[in-house]
Design a protein that fits this description.
There is one protein chain. The chain is of the alpha/beta class. The protein folds into 2 domains: 9-131 and 310-340, Quinone Oxidoreductase, Chain A, domain 1; 134-287, Rossmann fold, CATH 3.40.50. 26% of the residues lie in helices and 25% in strands. The chain contains 10 helices and 15 strands. Strands 3, 4, 5, 6, 7, 14 and 15 form a 7-stranded mixed sheet that branches. The chain has a 6-stranded parallel sheet with strand order 10-9-8-11-12-13, sandwiched between helices. A two-stranded antiparallel ribbon has the order 1-2. The protein is globular. It starts with 8 loop residues before the first strand and ends with a strand.
Length: 341
């Protein structure tokens, strides 16, 4: 059984691989007939999808070992999405009307393998909250950095989708002092007034090491790093004995106008790592498959109790999605960026 479908549906495709950051001409909004699900597939009408910086790494990237496929000209863009099943073959474990999450955003209708869908319930009070990338912050702070009562925690890129949740999570896990970094005075004010950050270091307002020394005069115990680059270097200079560093993003490479798709190289002082006993680890969700369900449960409890906020902006219409990506790169938005269809 299926529901009536439109004769055409829209999706955003990559029109060309940019040199540097993508511009509007690198994307095309294309109309195409809605696909028909075959065995083991369902058709999902997308309601929301996440615009995430990792997409920049996938566009023409040459890195090996990426968890998602590289995008080439003509490919439809991808990303986390939430939608409603509108067509399913007989015998499918998913039924018409089920709400699911999957990774085929950037299109109004998605043909998804059943194995690639996650059925959603009411654990979270708003379906959009399922697009929160907070699982990475939660996993890194509980599995790698292991925040302890009394810790001083630094979150770089604190006004982004991950960072805006990371500071709140660190506090809920027992951190005594939470410091963030951002590039906007207005965002710095919101981090303190809305999300409970104790202090913020501001990119472009002076040397980061000096700002960090003032914000954390006794040093930091934990780093949740979304940026790498000079932020990672400054954090290492402020590390206390036995500090735990968890890397979850590389915005310094992804959002650079000189990006080449080859990563985010940075020079750090290995001697300081050694004498300070600093652990430096990258977080990969695939290594911790139990985290997603654990995070969703705790996130739902914290949202309902008001102990945590999910900062995000909703952009209406798939035609505005490419500009939403540009605006996210430019630091226009606070928190996650979600396109609402």
């Amino acid at each position: 059984m299926t529901t009536p479908l439109p004769t055409t549906t829209r999706e955003v495709r990559l029109a060309g691989v940019p040199e540097g950051l993508p511009r509007p001409e690198h994307f095309a909004l294309v109309r195409t007939p809605p696909p028909t699900p075959g065995p083991g597939q369902v058709l999902v009408r997308n309601r929301y999808f996440l615009v995430f910086p990792g997409l920049l790494t996938l566009i023409g990237g040459e890195l090996e070992g990426l968890p998602l496929p590289t995008l080439r000209p003509g490919d439809t863009l991808i990303g986390p999405a939430v939608g409603e099943v509108v067509a399913a073959p007989s015998g499918s474990p998913l039924r018409i009307g089920d709400t699911v999450s999957h990774l085929l955003g950037w299109r109004e209708y998605a043909l998804v393998d059943v194995a690639g869908c996650t059925p959603l319930d009411d654990t979270l009070p708003d379906p959009v909250a399922h697009l929160s990338p907070g699982s990475a912050a939660y996993g890194a702070l509980t599995r790698l950095a292991e925040v302890r009562a009394g810790d001083t925690v630094l979150v770089t890129g604190a006004a982004g989708a991950v960072g805006s949740l990371a500071g709140q999570i660190a506090r809920l896990l027992g951190a005594a002092r939470v410091i963030g970094s951002t590039g906007s005075p207005a965002k710095a004010e919101r981090l303190v007034s809305e999300l409970g950050y104790d202090a913020v270091v501001l990119r472009g307002a002076g040397p980061l090491p000096a700002q960090l020394a003032q914000a954390a005069p006794e040093g930091i115990d934990v780093l949740l790093d979304n940026v790498a680059g000079d932020h990672l270097v400054a954090a290492l200079g402020a590390a206390r004995q036995g500090a735990r560093f968890a890397l979850v993003g590389t915005l310094s490479g992804q959002a650079s106008a000189q990006r080449t798709g080859s990563g985010a190289p940075v020079e750090i002082d290995a001697f300081r790592l050694l004498v300070k006993g600093v652990s430096l680890r990258g977080y990969n969700g695939a290594d911790h498959p139990e985290v997603a369900q654990e995070w969703t449960g705790r996130f739902g409890e914290w949202l309902r109790s008001g102990e945590i906020r999910f900062p995000h902006v909703r952009i209406a219409g798939i035609d505005r999605a490419p500009q939403a990506l540009r605006d996210m790169i430019g630091g226009k938005h606070f928190g996650a960026v979600v396109v609402e269809l």
